[in-house]
Write a structure and sequence with these properties.
The complex is a heterodimer.
Chain A (H helix, E strand, L loop, with lengths): L1 H31 L6 H18 L4 H24 L8 H22 L15 E4 L2 E4 H23 L1 H11 L1 H6 L4 H27 L6 H14 L4 H22 L7 H16 L14
Antiparallel strand pairs in A: 1-2
Chain B lengths: L13 H5 L5 H20 L2 H26 L7 H19 L3 H20 L8 H20 L1 H4 L5 E2 L14 H22 L3 H11 L1 H6 L4 H27 L1 E2 L6 H14 L4 H29 L3 H23 L3 H14 L6
Antiparallel strand pairs in B: 1-2
Helix pairs in contact in B: 2-8, 3-8, 3-9, 3-11, 3-13, 4-5, 4-6, 4-11, 5-11, 8-11, 9-11, 12-13, 12-14, 13-14, 13-15
The chains are: A mainly alpha, B mainly alpha.
Amino acid sequence: MEETIKSIVLGLCSGGIYALLAVSYVVIYKSTRVFPFSQAAVLIIGAYIMWYCLIAWNLPIWLGFIITCAGGALLGMFIERAFMRPLVGQPILAPIVVTLCLMLFLRGIGILMGKGDIQGFGESFLPVGAWEIGFLHLPKIQVYGFILCGVLIAALMLFYEKTRTGLGMRVVHEDHVVAQNLGINVKRIFQYSWIISCIIAVIAGMLLGNIQGVGLALDANGLITIAAVLFGGLESFAGAIIAGLAIGILQMLTIAYIAPLLPGETTMMVPFVFLLLILFIKPYGLFGLVRIERL
Amino acid sequence: MNINRPCGTFDRNYFQAKELYRTRLRKVLLALLILGMYVLPLLIGDYGISILTVICAFIIGMLGLQIITGYCGQISIGHAAFMGVGMYTVAILQRHFGFSFWLALPFAGLVPMFIGMMFGVPALRMKGLYLAFATLAAHFVIVYVISNWRSVTNGTDGMWMKRPGELFGIDFMKDRNYYLLVLTVTIFMTYVATNLSRTKLGRSFVAVRDNDIAAEVMGINIAYTKIMAFGVGCFFAGISGAMGGAYYEYVNIEWFGLDDSIWYLGFLVVGGFGSIFGAIAGATVWKIMDELSTLVTPLAETFLGGAAFYASAAFSLVFYSLIIIVFLVFEPRGIAHRWEIIKRSYRLHPFPY
């Protein structure tokens, strides 16, 4: 029992990052109807930019954070303008192949940036150590990461609710043609979506790099998050957050209970078995829209 | 069916309408091509033969993906894993049950076929992107099982595989003879795939791709069609894996990364969707690029010194993905479409259209 509670609490903490990443997928999917597999590799780029800022150039943390976010924004803008915009209106296959290839492209860039090694941030930019509450052992990195993720998601939701651009984005989520007729620049909204999503992914990459070390293996987190996005429903922010936390918990429970029984990387395999189960039982996820089509 | 038919060819009876190749020129060219492929190993060295063998093996796999994705419109991000299942099936049957290659070959097709159909079952309830997720999950589950079921698959160390022994006095241990075998299998599978697209099943694939609701209204069982597409495609993938693995006489799970599954899909785009020629062109371009990137590695070493190993890995990732993206952006219909344009302008030569 103690073990279970421990896993669940730890899972919630690490699930914060998955929730953040899941939101980064949903932002793009909702507005452009393209599933951005590439975000899994944007993580790597973000972590490496932060690594360059902190270790190679010895910049202060706040400046590194700003530079990394700016880098993420530029990357998102570039991807949308150069690769995704020519594909608007093409059959569904084309954008999927492009985002998959972008994933490998960014991975290749990541190899070049990191010279193929796993790097560390030296000392963590979030406080280290842990709180001991009863039998719970809470690493501060995880808790602060969770809080940061929560703040970011809240800020994003406020942006959607309160600003004029956010309103426009919500209209685009509903229907592209209607939005265009209402005088909203749909292309610009697509660009905003990619920029927002890439900034989020880059920040998640920083946080993950802080915990797991900066390396190519980071994109595994991005791939696992795909299971979370599907569980929550591709069109739902609330679903993405809940499912992100759920995947975090699932992963910790896996480490506690399933990993001792099975060999190998169970943390990578179990989320995908979970994904298959969702596809069989409830393919549109918790809050996803069930599409009804007709001729 | 090719509408851009040469001038003056008409269907006067049913058998003419069924013909694959209509004009004498095309028949002669095809015969010359096949003959040339059989004679080629006499002219080129061992290196050329190794490239040709790999290209032929991958053409079979690419045809399978063409059936799943190009004809039926179902996106598969796990094709390399199914190829791996085919390879491992032969290796396991040879090692644990003492099967000969010939006996194991049908199983190399059938086992991936059933696994592929299993992962295609979500097609009963959804389509498009959601099915792509199912194949992505299939990829990870298959790779996990193969790399961790050590007692059967020898884990990440890989397994030895035996080439087929003598048949009709032909010794397949020689690379040249083995190439001829792979070539024969490839021609046979190409023939099967070409004809499959003209059967009832093949036509229902295309109907499901173009509009699945309309297909259902016409009385096509969509779920059955999609699952069959996965089954047939994975059968091809398995055969391709068996032929390729037996050439190296060794199997390793490292060969079937997520990268390879994505390259499969990407080079299908480069070749062209929905045509047999597209699959052949895609596989050929892919493997020729592979050879080019291994040729470039020594160059990278001279420029970058000891850091070359990561540079060559990054080079192939960046270069391939850029090529695929550029093709998608500028020529979404691939090489096959260009080839059709060239053929048409040849036919209509003095006139622009």
